[in-house]
Amino acid sequence: MSKKDTLLRQWLLLKSIPRHPRKITAKELEEILKNEGYKIHKRSVERNLHELSAVWPMLSDERSRPYGWSWQPDAPLFSLPGMSPVQALALTLARNHLASLLPAGMLETLGPYFDHANTVLLTGEGIKNMADWREKVAIVSSNQELVPPQYDENVVATVHSALFSEKQLEIDYIGRGVEQKTHVIHPLGLVQRGAVIYLVATMYTYEDIRILALHRIVSATILDKAAKGPKNFRLSEYIAKGSFGFTENDEPIRISVRFEADSAEHLRETPLSRDQEIIEEGQTVRLKATVPNSQQLRWWLRSFGAQIEVLEPESLRNEFVEMAGAFKSVYKLQG
Q1: Fold of 3-71
Q2: Is 196 exposed, middle or buried (0-12, 13-18, 19+ CB in 10 A)?
Q3: pLDDT tens, residue by residue, 28-63
Q4: CATH 1.10.150 fits 153-240, yes or no
C-alpha cells in the first residue's frame, strides 16, 4: 500500500472515531474501512489505533471486551479541509439559536466545533467583520418560550447511537404520574417539539407507536439486537398525520372563524392553509380554511381570546361555547 493510501486510511480512521462518551470498536472500524474499499484486518486496525493514540488524544475503554475507542472529551477539533469563514459564521449563528432549544449537555458536545468556528472568524480584519454580522441578525419566537428540561448526556448519546446503528434499547423510564419502569424499545426517530425532545419508538414485540419524552429516560443501554419498527414506517409521514399535534381525527376539517380585522391581518401573508379564504365583513373578516383536526388547532384558536368567534363546524363551535361557559364559572362572571 502506498504512503498516500496509508495516510488516507488513517485519516478516515480518525474521522470515524466518536467523541467520549460514545465509543467504537476495532471491528466496527474495520467494517467502515472495508466499505470504503480498504482491504484490512481487525488486527491491523488495532495496531493503527495504538500507534495513532500515541499522537492524538484518544481513549481506549478496556473495562470489557470488545474494547471501545473514542476521542477524549476535551480533545480539540481538527478537520481537513479547514472550515471556511462562511461555514464558521453559519455555525456560530446556529449556536445562538439552538441555545434556547437544546439542553446544555448537547451544546457541550458541539463545543469544539463552535470554538473552532470562533477561531476562524477572529483571524484577520476582513473575517472579523463577518463575525460582527452575528450582532445584526436575530430570531424572535412567536410562542411563549419555555426553559428546556435537563437531559442526561450519556442517555442522549446512547439514544443517538442506537438510532444510528438501528439497535434495540433497554431504558429506565419515568412516565407522568407513574413509577420508574424498565422497557425494551425499538427506537424509530427523534422529534423536537418546542422545548422538549421526544423519542418515537415501539416497545417489545408490539407495533403500536409510542412517544417518549427524552428527559424522562433515566438510563439507556444498547442491546445487541436489531431494532424492528413497523413495516414501511417513515417518521416524516408519521408527523404529517398530525401525531405531534395530538390529532383527534385523521380527517381534516373545514373551519369558518370570524376575526376582528386587525387580528387576521397576518394571515394574509402567512395563510393557515393552501385553500384559505378571507371574506371581508366590515369591521370583521371571516376566515375559511381546511386544517388538521388537532389539539394544536384549538390551542392556536384559544390564543386569540375574544378576538375570534368559531362558526363552523358545529362540533368545534360547541367546544368553544362550553369553554366560554367554563371561563365565566372560573372568573365568577355574571351571564
Answers
A1: Arc Repressor Mutant, subunit A (1.10.10)
A2: middle
A3: 988 888 877 778 888 888 888 888 888 888 888 878
A4: no
